[in-house]
Design a protein that fits this description.
This protein is of the alpha+beta class. It is built from 15 helices and 23 strands. It has helices spanning 21-28, 44-63, 77-83, 85-88, 111-121, 167-187, 225-230, 244-251, 263-267, 293-296, 319-329, 357-372, 386-396, 406-410, 429-437, and strands at residues 32-36, 39-42, 67-68, 74-76, 94-97, 103-106, 130-139, 154-164, 192-196, 206-213, 219-224, 255-257, 274-289, 299-301, 307-309, 311-318, 331-332, 335-336, 347-351, 377-380, 400-404, 414-418, 424-427.
Length: 438
């Protein structure tokens, strides 16, 4: 992408109502724009990051055996009347009436829709287990939308739903998601800890929230430090084998959100291990058995020929919230520091003197080589002061800068700069390209 033809409206100052650093930086970097309270338009740079996060979530869900579908944003109120949640959900639900006077709603979650799909097609234990997910916009008419996309009203969620014949099988499905989530966050450059959680309006009796530790988090977290150091299981575990030990290794350590906190158990821990911190909830998983399958009549025939209600769980990842959470976890005084895995562009080629034939030629050559290597380069070919260019590229957080200027070229070198460390090296172009390509 050539910056001279791109749309990256960076701002020198953040609007004064942006209270937390991720909100300020997303506005200054021109990633998104508020259209109404809690409702955002995604501008090109923000959209690139959002899509990269979405793709990582998708790959890890697929690896764990889940299957992607796409459900509508608008749902029939009648389905929610069947489950009994239509009246319970309250003012957070955006209710809509169509021209035929039918009651619709903008889905805040999709347990009812997926249960309706499941019951229409799946009738036998032989078709289980199944885990169906989608990555779709949700709407919750939050009382206090705030902190930009961190707590929006319209937000992008990955929601998965598991269906099993009995509780033991449902637990295996839960375990797969539990571990897949840790891998997702690790690929996003985040260290997430799973904490015991209150299931809230989704319901059920087993639930974990995944928390990114950050001072601006809305939740209080109490945990054993060892959990933070334990890290993710990695992609190579046996996804269809027994994952219980791998999960128990983590759930046996103390970790709870404030609603589930047990001060006595926490105080009984070795003092050095006790950690109290603020957390951003970037995922939430639930096991709720027959809560939806029973009122909605989603039954399967077991091996004994007897019908039973299918055992369900649901698993959410806050995809749009993650954009902000990653920035909270990774920024400095000059701007965002994207992990390579989600950076909007892998590298920026900075042409320090557009219009100078030799500089233009080397910058173009670098841009072509980086494109061919699949590194998604941005070519800064704008006619602007070098200082202004560097400030903008530092602000938007591109992981590498490859700087081409007349002075360096006279000595046969270009300069490369790593955004995260500020480290600089002067090298001939071919070597510089090798360093960036890793
Ligand atoms: N049906 C279940 C799981 S699929 C569910 O809705 N769970 S949830 O309510 O916990 O939401 C899942 C995730 O969506 C949360 O962990 C959070 O990361 C994200 N999320 C929830 N509300 C918002 C919001 N208002 N703005 C941005 N992200 C949100």
């Amino acid at each position: 992408m050539r910056l001279s033809r791109y749309f990256m409206p960076t701002l020198r100052e953040a609007p004064s109502d942006a209270q937390i650093v991720s909100h300020q930086l997303m506005l200054r970097a021109g990633m998104m724009r508020q259209e109404a309270a809690g409702i955002y338009a995604w501008l090109p740079l923000g959209l690139r990051v959002l899509k990269k996060i979405e793709q990582i979530v998708r790959e890890e869900m697929n690896r764990a055996g889940a299957i992607e579908v796409l459900m509508p944003t608008l749902q029939l109120a009648d389905l929610w009347r069947e489950s009994g949640r239509y009246d319970d959900y309250g003012e957070e639900m955006l209710r809509i009436r169509d021209r035929h006077e039918r009651d619709l709603l903008y889905g805040p979650t999709a347990e009812e829709v997926i249960t309706d799909i499941f019951r229409s097609y799946i009738k036998s234990y032989k078709d289980l287990p199944k885990n169906l997910y989608n990555i779709q916009w949700k709407f919750r008419d939050e009382r206090r939308p705030r902190f930009g996309v961190m707590r929006g009203r319209e937000f992008l969620m990955k929601d998965a739903y598991s269906f099993d014949i009995d509780e033991a099988a449902a637990r295996r499905s839960y375990n797969r998601m539990f571990l897949a989530y840790l891998n997702i966050y690790a690929r996003l450059g985040l260290s997430a800890i799973p904490v015991r959680a209150d299931p809230g309006p989704i319901g059920g009796d087993m639930s974990h929230e995944f928390m990114i530790l950050a001072d601006t988090g809305e939740s209080e977290v109490f945990a054993d430090r060892a959990l933070v150091e334990m890290g993710a299981p990695g992609p190579d575990i046996d996804w269809h084998g027994d994952l219980e030990a791998e999960v128990t290794r983590r759930t046996s350590l103390y970790a709870a959100s404030d609603e589930m906190h047990d001060p006595d158990a926490f105080e009984a821990m070795f003092e050095d291990n006790r950690m109290t911190a603020r957390g951003i909830e970037v995922g939430h998983i639930f096991y709720f058995g027959e809560k939806y399958s029973k009122p909605m009549g989603a039954k399967v025939t077991g091996p004994d020929g007897v019908d039973r209600f299918v055992q369900m769980g649901s698993y959410g990842v806050g995809v749009s919230r993650l954009v902000a959470a990653i920035i909270e976890a990774s920024h400095d005084e000059t701007g965002i520091v994207w992990p390579d895995s989600v950076a909007p562009f892998g590298v920026a080629v900075v042409n320090l003197r557009p219009g100078d034939g030799a500089v233009d030629e080397v910058a173009e050559q670098a841009y072509r080589a980086l494109t061919a290597a699949g590194l998604d380069p941005l070519l800064d070919d704008r006619d602007d002061r070098p200082g202004a260019k560097f400030a903008a590229l530092d602000l938007v957080g591109i992981p590498w800068q490859l700087i081409v200027g007349p002075k360096g070229l006279a000595e046969g070198v270009v300069e490369i700069k790593r955004r995260a460390t500020g480290e600089r090296q002067s090298l001939p172009l071919d070597q510089a390209l090798k360093v960036i390509a890793g």
